[in-house]
Prior knowledge:
Blueprint: E1 3-7, H1 25-40, E2 45-52, E3 61-67, E4 70-79, H2 84-95, E5 103-109, H3 114-122, E6 126-129, E7 134-138, E8 142-146, H4 168-176, H5 184-191, H6 195-207, E9 211-213, E10 219-221, H7 224-236, E11 241-246, H8 252-260, E12 271-273, H9 274-281, E13 290-293, H10 297-306, E14 310-311, E15 318-322, E16 334-336, E17 339-341, H11 344-352, H12 358-375
Parallel strand pairs: 1-8, 4-5, 5-6, 12-17, 13-15
Antiparallel strand pairs: 2-3, 3-4, 6-7, 7-8, 9-10, 11-14, 11-15, 12-13, 16-17
Helix pairs in contact: 5-6, 7-11, 9-11, 11-12
Amino acid sequence: MTHVYKTDTVYVNINNAEIINIMKKNEVLEELKKNFFRIAKVPGLRLRGCSSSFLDKSYDAVLKLSYGKKSIKLICLIKSVVRTITIENAIRKIESLPKQGGVKPCLVATYLSKDFRALCRKKDVAYIDLSGNIFINIPEVLYIEKGDKTNKYKDTTKLTGFFSDKKSFAIRYLFENPRKYCGVREVASACSINPGGVSQTFNSLENTGYIVRDSKGRGKLLRWKELLADWSAFYKLKRKKEYSFYWHKKSLKEMINTLARRDFPKEPQIALTVHAGAFLIAPHTNYQGLHGYVSNESDISYWEKELGLEQAKQGANVFLQIPYYKHSIAFGLKKIKGLFVVSPLQLYLDLINFPVRGEEQAEHLLKNIIKPHIENPG
Length: 378
């Protein structure tokens, strides 16, 4: 009879990555051995043996379990770096491993986000993470599903290099020119950045499978959807300085029309983003707040005075921000109806993490602007 053990399950639909601490595979395995009882907590389930794989390179380790009189063997892939691309590759590999009797392929990591766990369950891929989330489904033998445990292995200093301000120039340039191989010096010259930094970024992007390079070392986007998903997850963790105001205008449209009538180039610039930017590039949702990037606090003071804005903690409808990307925010700026709008790529990053209809608007932008630009020739 199948034993069912299910607690605190959360189902989600967004496929975002989480950045985790880097551990070697053998370190992950040793931690699992030491903490298996804490992670599983299923009466009668025992870890009888744990060994690394030396001969068969299709997997990393074998866990031998017992549940009552039943013997269970988990053939494990260990992922010490958890990102969209590595998890999707691991799932494809796991699906090709043998599944018979008490043998079950299993993904092991320090932490798997809600979205990764949902994806594994959908594919019926077993998983165990060191943070305490586990799913094993062996018909007529054992069913375990438990979470939602938080990440105990967070590290915000690693795996984030090519998403930093100046290094992200290279990614932005590749997204802007998706159908050609881009040279290191070409990118450096176009973005006014150091060629050495571009070269490092290209190496990292190639090593993680996001780009492919030709014989001359030029790079071209390969896994752009995965890159965008992981960038969105990284950006979600970054804070921007935001100042909230109330403006005596009836709607977002009226605010934008008022700004458009001003002699904008002679004043400190506002680069519209979130729903205000989408209103001019790819309108879809109805949101009445105006978000814009400015360079510094003095620009905020200028607009507060010139527009007659009132500081507001509640009921605000204008949000002026100092961007996390202080340099690369200007890449791909568009001017529409006399107003500056951030690039569609930056707009997507801002929208996908915005709590009020942001994801819906971001997906509309992705489908109608970003994806056609990348995938459709011409």
